[in-house]
Amino acid sequence: MELTHFSTQVTRFTPLVWTMLLGNFFVRASYYMVWPFLAVILYTKFSLSATEVGVLLTGSAVFAVLLGFYTGNLADRFGRFKVLYAAVIVGVLAFSALAIAEQLWSFCVAIFFACMPRTLWDAPSKALLSDELERDEDRELALHLLYFLVNVGAALGPLFGLWAGLNGEQFSFIYTAIAYLALFFALLLKQRQANVRHEVSEKTNVPHFRQWLQLLRQDSKFLWALVATFLVYLVFGQGDSSLIQYLTRADVPELALLISSLIVANSLVIVVCQFPLLHVMKSWSIQNRLLVGGAVLAVSQLMMAFADVNSFWAWIVCVVVLSLSEAILFSNINIHIDRMAPAHLKASYFGAAGLCSLGFALAPLVGGLILDIANGTLLFLTMVVASLVAMWLYKVAQRSEMDE
Fold this sequence. Notes:
Elements: H1 2-11, H2 15-34, H3 38-44, H4 50-78, H5 80-100, H6 104-114, H7 116-132, H8 136-163, H9 173-193, H10 197-200, H11 209-218, H12 220-240, H13 242-249, H14 255-280, H15 286-306, H16 312-340, H17 346-353, H18 358-373, H19 376-403
Membrane topology: Multi-pass membrane protein
Transmembrane segments: 21-43, 49-69, 81-98, 104-121, 141-166, 172-189, 220-236, 256-278, 290-307, 313-335, 347-371, 377-394
Main location: membrane
């Protein structure tokens, strides 16, 4: 019965919805196919120090996040497709430039532009999914599928890059450029076939950026949810950076094997458990899903705080619990944003939600400072507090919505 219902929902997905879903998969896979090797090229070819590489990559990532905040509003004002086309064109040019740049300055400029397409693509593609699907349950399934495919793409990209022998060859960036070019033609084809109600609707109701900022300041429930999501991302960001630093400083035996196993465990849990969790929680309110996900996140950090640093399986169990919270939270955060956003401001809201990614950007700095000042136990206990504060803020956002 459930499989039949799922099949019925999927048949309601328009060709444009599938273009957005598969486009996100291929772009993310091709991106990660070569992006992990960027630091190698900056070191071997241009002799940049670790600090210089870190400043360059962090700066370009923060620039892209701030740009997405603005371009989300542009997508609502001028149409989703215009920003999507801009994303793929910038992707083609930027990754082509990375493939052939010979001067350090031109390579650095290309890096900044190469961070833009994902940001430009994110908000309007999610808004298009929402526009194309009339039923809440269909939009929810599409956003779950989007998160699932993005994770699969991020996991398979580096593996394919290694299999294809793209281990630090600068010209391999051309493959990502080709993926963006293919996506450009797919967009061109599907736009003509699509039912683009949002493109012909009145755009006079969409505020300019300054007016949008005024509206945003008045939407207290959304602002509280943004702060909560920022804290959630800050906690998850510790798993990508500070946890590795902590294990490295502790001289854990077989460190390389442990780190690889943690990455594999994380990917497997998300891929295997996301849709079973969706089935279990289908009748729950979105707020309850977020609260349960936050509680599981807090438990994972508490486990890390007191885990035996030399126990291989203790860390595997900790990451499994962390990954369960990720499978619950990440796609439901997108659903929460979609439900809070007015129909004519979907991309603006998704663009504003992109600011929460600054939590990931700041995680290495916050975690590194705590590790230098104190120890791993204090770091993870601090993240327990951050998780609990995020849960409280989601409750505050819910109360603000009920009071309106």
